[in-house]
Amino acid sequence: AVSTVEILQELINLARDIREARLRGEAEGLSLDEIAFYDALAENQSAIEVMGNDKLKVIAHELLTSLRGSITVDWSHRENARARMRILVKRILRKYGYPPDLQDAAVQTVLAQAEALSAQWAA
Question: What's the average pLDDT block by block, 10 residues per block, for the chain (123 residues)?
Answer without folding.
Answer: 83 84 71 82 79 86 87 74 88 89 87 80 60
